[in-house]
Each structure stands twice: as C-alpha cells, then as structure tokens.
From TrEMBL:
SUPFAM superfamilies cross-referenced by the UniProt entry: LuxS/MPP-like metallohydrolase
Coiled coil: none
Protein name as catalogued: Insulinase family protein
Gene3D superfamilies: Metalloenzyme, LuxS/M16 peptidase-like (3.30.830.10)
Originating organism: Simplicispira hankyongi
Domain Peptidase M16 N-terminal positions: 53-193
Keyword terms, alphabetized: Signal
Length: 475
C-alpha cells in the first residue's frame, strides 16, 4: 500500500519525525518563502489550490476528499478505503482499469490513500498533460461506477491487505487494539482498513451509498503544484470539475470522546520474536494556528517534547533506554499526534532488549517523561529540535509531492494555506518552561492506555510479511 506522509499530518504523528541529518544547535533561521499558493472556489463549492513551482516541466495533481474512516458507522468499517479501491474500477466513460492505463500512457504515475480523516488521489505528470488528468479525475469523481463482480474481486484484495498489513504484523495488530481500547465514542476506535467481519458483510450498495453521500464537490479540494499558471489551472478546473452538479455536504454529528476515568491496560498475544509495549496518553489537539488557545499552545509544546525525546539520533529515549551496558530497550520512540479531525494522543513505545521485559521498558519510558517534568529541558536542546524542524521544512519544499500534500492536508483540517509557516513561527516561541509544564500535566495514569505485546511461538517455516502500520494512511 502506498503511504502519504504530509508535513503537517502523518509526519508529525510518526515517532522520530525529523531527519537525523538535519540536526544542529545553531539558531533557527528563517524559512525561504516560495511563490504563494492561490486558492479559488468553483461555482459548485469545490475548492482549488494552485502552487506554482517552475523548476521542472512537471506537475502533481491531487484530489483530497474530506472523508475517511471517521465518517463511517458501525457495521461498514473500511468502506472509505474500499471506495478508494473502487475508484480505479471504472466510470460512465472508462472500463475497469482504464484510468490507470491512460495515466501511464500520458507518462504519469498515480496512486491514492485513505486515512481516518481523508481520502486522496494523485497523479504526477508532465505539466502539459494536466488537462488530460483533470478530465480523467473529474470524471471518476462524479461518475464512478463498476459491475458487482469488480467489487467482489477487489474486496478480496482488501481482505488480503488486512491480513498482510495487520493480522500478520504483531505490532500493527497491537496498534489496532490500542486504538480500540483508547477510544470509546470517537470513530477513531475503528481501524481504517476495517474489521474483517464488516468486510465479510460489505455489499456493493454499501460502497455506492457512501460514495454518493460524501463525494460531493463542496467536500473536496483539487490541489495542483508544479510548472503551472494559476489562472490557466482555474480555467481547466472550471471546465472539468466545475461541470459537476453542486450537492449539499452531509451534516456531521459530533462524536466527542468522553473523559477517561482511569488507566486502561490490554495484552495482545500474537506470534512474534520480541515483546513490545505502547503507551497512549490523552492530549490536546492543535486546532488553530491563527489565534492559538491554551490547548493549542500545549499541543505545540507536546510536539517539541516528542522531538526532545526521540526526534534525532542520540535524543533522550535513545540515550536513556537503548545505549550502555544496562540498556533496557532495543528501540524506543515517541510521537505527538495532535493534528487531525478527531481526538489526539501522545505515544511512547519500545522493544525490550534481550533479558529485559516490557514492564521494564514501560517504566523507563515513563521515567524519561517524569525527568522532563521534574528537571525541564535546556534551551540548547529545544533549539536543536526547532532547527531540525526548519531544515525538514526546507527539505519538504523541494518536493512537488510534499508541497501538494501539505496544502491538501491543511485544507482537510481546516487550517490556512500557510499553516506550516505559522506552525514554525509558533514553535519558535515555545519556551522550555512550557515543555516542562506539559510533561507535568498530561502524563497521569488516568489519561493512559497501555498495550503490551506478549510474544507467542512463531510456527516453523512461517514466511515473514513486510512490516505494516495500522495507524497511517493506506492504499
């Protein structure tokens, strides 16, 4: 499955989110500004964002739909991801598989992705082929259709994907169980890939109904980055996407997660070579970058705390848990998942070293956060993390794919187009005392869910599958 990591979405949720080679202790420089993106609204409500970048005669074209697994209901989990697969299976004008063949004939590459918050489709093509892919993509957005036999075949592909990426991957299986235990009312309780029983029971009409409900122009944005002129792209968008009839976006009911009333623990038994432990703490979400509230500032401080703990080679978790003769872990990581349409969490995880237990790793992880709560962090340590973020931002801007992904992710979350620059400005202002404060306030037992992998014997001759991840975007 194809992964999409955006500068302001999944990348910030991943442990070790910043490139180690970017580390430095110098003062944080300003980020060089690219040509500002342009944003338009078509008559039917669909949004268009254009980011010119003239360095090469190529373009990335994306459609982001503000619908993901969090918009599903019980009994049809996984349907948002199944729709993503079925979008390649035909339209009123194209036979199953014809979309991909035509993109390839244009000299392009294409794929798609589904997460809890969104579904996205993209093509990278020569810039002079942009009109062709806009015509193709707008057609399947508005007129996706396929015979039932195509659905039955593709559903088996999705089921095998679930087996390969979750059920045969102990840590991905644990991650799925952790989400299910940590969230009760929030739809984040369900996996993006869906529960297997729901996939078994899914019908073609389940998929068609979800598609008709959510694939409406006002619930989507077209993002184009590359060697393009914004006004010319607008004209193409009006001719293609603008011809799709307007429809109302369904009303979303709030499904707020209730306060956690105490620590939760789960054990997951699965064939594995090593134990593993993951801790998830309730955390505030980052909702506004223009008028940040106290919760927003806490979320920013938690992002930097994650960087202090595991954001670079030799960070605190690596030094404290994985190095030296008395090391307790083979690996240890943290992640601040504070972006998204749903509730947020702060994660700690680790793999016990030989002769050590998951309980010892859990205690060591918690001790590192407690040390920050008691002693704080140094200005130099925080400056190093901030500087890495700047370097990562410069690196991201070198990629058309990253530029387009960032803009689409920002739109899905209701953030401004310049969200990354605003984020960096706010992060520069976070003080060591704020990082110490969040370490003191957000890591109590009542806010914690712990999942421990209890390794079971691996059957002789079992073929290892490629590693999976239950928490990220999938294709």
């Amino acid at each position: 499955m194809k992964r999409i990591f955006t500068a302001l979405g999944l990348a910030l949720c991943a442990a070790g989110f910043l490139p180690a080679h970017a580390a430095t202790t110098q003062a944080t420089p300003a980020v060089a500004q690219a040509v500002a993106p342009s944003q338009f609204t078509l008559a039917n409500g669909m949004q268009l964002i254009v980011q010119p970048d003239r360095r090469a005669p190529t373009a990335v074209h994306m459609v982001w739909v503000r619908v993901g697994s969090m918009d599903e209901v019980d009994g049809v989990s996984g349907v948002a991801h199944v729709i993503e697969h079925m979008m390649f299976k035909g339209s009123e004008k194209l036979a199953p598989g014809e979309f991909s063949r035509r993109v390839a004939a244009l000299g392009g590459q294409e794929n798609a992705f589904t997460s809890r918050d969104y579904t996205g489709y993209y093509q990278q093509i020569p810039a002079n082929k942009l009109e062709d892919v806009m015509r193709l993509e707008s057609d399947r957005f508005a007129h996706n259709q396929w015979p039932d036999k195509e659905f039955r075949h593709e559903l088996e592909v999705v089921k095998e994907e679930r087996r390969m990426r979750t059920e045969d991957q102990p840590r991905a299986l644990l991650s799925e169980q952790l989400y299910a235990a940590a969230f009760i009312a929030s739809p984040y309780h369900r996996p993006v890939i869906g529960w297997m029983s729901d996939l078994d029971a899914m019908t073609p009409d389940d998929v068609r109904a979800f598609y008709r409900k959510w694939y409406v122009p006002a619930n989507a944005v077209v993002v184009v980055a590359g060697d393009v002129d914004p006004q010319q792209v607008l004209a193409l968008a009006q001719k293609t996407y603008g011809a799709i009839p307007a429809r109302a976006v369904p009303t979303r009911k709030p499904r707020a997660e209730p306060p956690q009333m105490g620590m939760r623990r789960i054990d997951v038994k699965a064939p594995a070579d090593q134990a593993y432990v993951a801790l998830a703490y309730r955390a505030p979400s980052l909702r506004s970058l223009t008028e940040p509230t106290a919760n927003d500032r806490d979320a920013l401080a938690l992002l930097l705390l994650s960087g202090v703990l595991s954001g670079y080679d030799g960070a605190r978790l690596e030094r404290g848990l994985t190095q030296g003769p008395d090391r307790v872990a083979d690996s240890a990581n943290s992640g601040a998942s504070v972006f998204g349409r749903g509730p947020s969490q702060f994660y700690l995880s680790g793999v016990p070293a030989t002769g050590k237990t998951a309980a010892q790793v859990e205690a060591a992880l918690r001790a590192e956060v407690a040390r920050v709560a008691k002693e704080g962090v140094s200005e130099a340590e925080l400056t190093r993390v901030k500087t890495q973020w700047i370097a990562s931002r410069v690196y991201d801007r070198d990629s058309l794919q990253n530029q387009a992904s960032e803009l689409g992710s920002n739109w899905v979350q209701g953030l401004p187009l310049d969200a990354e620059d605003r984020l960096l400005t706010l992060l520069r202002g976070v003080q060591p005392s704020e990082v110490q404060s969040v370490a003191q306030r957000y890591f109590g037992d009542d806010q914690l869910t712990v999942a421990t992998l209890l390794p079971q014997p691996v059957a002789p001759g079992t073929r290892k599958r490629p590693a999976g991840d239950a928490g990220g975007a999938i294709r």
